[in-house]
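=== RUN LOG ===
request id: a7f3
mode: sequence -> structure
chains: 1
length: 797
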Amino acid sequence: MSTRQFGARVERNIDPKLLRGEGAFVDDIPLPDALHVAFLRSPHGRAQIVSIDTSAARRHPGVAAVFTSDDIGALDVEMPLLIPHPSMKNPKTQRPLARGDVYYVGQTVAMVVAVDRYTAEDAAALIDVEYAPLPLEMDLAKALMDDAPLVHADVPNNLAAHFIQTSGDPEDAFARAEHVTKITVQVDRSTAAPMECRAVAARWDAVSGELTVWDGTQAPISVRGGLASVFELDEDKVRVIAPDVGGGFGQKVLLFYPDELLVPMAAMRLGRPVKYIEDRRENFLGSSQERTQIHTIELAALRTGEVIGLRDFFLHDTGAFIPYGIAVAQVASTSIAGPYRIPNIFVEFKAVYTPTVQLTPYRGCGRPQACFAIERAMDQLAEELGLDRFEIRRRNLIAENQFPYERDGLLFADGLKVTLDSGQYGKALAMAAAELGAENFAAEQAKARAEGRYLGLGLACYVEGTGLGPYEGGHVKIHPITGKVYVNTGLSTQGQGHDTVFAQIVADQLGVSPQDVIVVEGDTKAFDWGVATFASRAAVVSGNAIHKTALTVRKKVIEAAANMLDVDPDQIELRDSAAWVKGSNRFAPLAAIATASNPLRYAFNKAAQAATQFAPASKHDGPPLADGQAPGLEATDYYSPSRSTWAYGVHGAIIEVDPGLCTVKIRKYVCIHDCGNMINPMIVEGQVLGGIAQGIGGALYEHLDYQADGNLANASLMDFLVPYATEIPNVSILHLETPTPLNPLGVKGVGEAGCIAVGAVVASGVEDALRPFGALKFHQVPLSPNMISHALEQVGY
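=== RESULT ===
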């Protein structure tokens, strides 16, 4: 039998190519005679455009074209509202180029196309725009007031959406409560800051009428559909390719950014390839961001610590526009109870327009905010009731025999009722306590304090809804010449290792090495049905689609091999890229079986001779292909999840705080994680560790510093702090595998898990470390040295 590949630590197939510098990113695509794009962007948070004079820019040597909103014809419309929702009374989306007003610093006002980027930028600087600045309000709470300046004149109180969900009877729960704790927390705005900024290139073939677009997007099929609609082209005349993509983290799933429409338009109008490569400053100013939420959460509890009710009201900053609807806020609102058995929930949020870059999902997508709120509240409840932080959680975690656990009245981002499908929450908490040495930590902490060192233990639990529908598909084909297996799906990858995990799924069914499975994704010509890569859904949705397809191909292989080897199908086993008769040395290579399954007229090689009309194996009484039979060994199938799966975990850390320097060092970090059956534990660990690193950034460093006038003060990697590798601690990752009953592979998503709990862990640990100085509270992240200094000053240190 072949070694089972599912669950094995198989090295990533793509890494050798990337490590050799052979990746092909959008900027690497050879496009002879290409023109290059630069944008003129608004310097104001809110302003009226009085006039635009492009004459000097148009005269500049090397300029091919200059476009304002007056020059782009049918594209001068508001871009799509991607996820409509009844709670949005007046949803606003951006135009490709500003018309009339500008709504944030960095909004695209004009586009220059020139012989190179340098020329385009020089020409953009020659465009003369007269602005009439307008008043604005950056504070979320103040923006809702009656006298606040409006981002959009026809949206009262800047209220983009207002939504309430209720589960159980929260009013009764609070009436019965023996103790109520209340806390207000804030998670600040950040950005994905992927290694490769966004990029788009396009080529138009006027003879064939075909538009080819290379786009560093997480949603090539969706972009293809949109471009076909906007330019009134048949979908088969539009090809969108997401080549190698240097990170996405949600920022590259939005469609459309202005450039994704304007670059193809320019290529079609000018008859030459056109390319736009975003620089880092533009990424800060113009590409979508996320995170800002302010939660006021109350827990109704009994004296035993059992939480019987939860109320949460929060403000969600949606930026100047709301193209992705309320998705981020809705995920936060449905994750607010975490892994806890809280039967009565009231959650309300208001999404607020602010004169800033629009908010769309960034790795975590509302979950870090919800986790920060519930976990800080659980810590406070434990303190007020005199309970250990582990114990308060232990008494409230959903038990194994309570799954599936439904939260009636709460609808997740897939529009379906929140139903936590499976888990071992209590076991995960116990594992975290053991790994952290929680039982002996008090003694260790006291010893450190005697030495003038301040250690604290931070703790947080989380859940993660994963594997959103509606569907994905998979195509599997065994090549008749090489016997290698080709796999296609509609997703694109940004470094997650899809090529390896999908290969492992197929390898087990067809008896081949994962290295002999060639996965092609991110190309609408390779597979043209699907949704996008987001919400930790690739392994769940595409993985199960590919698994289903591989089973179909496996059946075809076994039936064909049994016929060739003249045995019953149950006597065939697949291994070593061949079909073997069990207990014998008789076999047929997959390449030969694939060739024989394709009746041929011409023998183009030796193997093909077995499939021509006069070969012994081709003799038959009926037609070469029976009715309903298809040539070759291939199939296509789809998987549509019935509802989301819910991964979960427990994070903990030993943290040291220097009260003199107000610095934080993570001495030990522990993650207990459960994403169901693991296809590749090494890739799971890479995803979780990468998420933890990103979470540390959000907990201690990464903060977008918007000024009162709407300008971003730290729009560069010199000023926007991301953690160095030296600031990421060694992380102990321990796995549980609780299969979900919802899909054949028993898998849950993993991509966003690592970042969700880190902010709560760090704040919890810092608070615990500084307890000797008084009841210091840390209810906001990122937690800066200034915050620690201010808290210590408040208690006279």
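=== NOTES ===
The chain is about 25% helix and 25% strand.
The mean pLDDT is 95.
=== END ===
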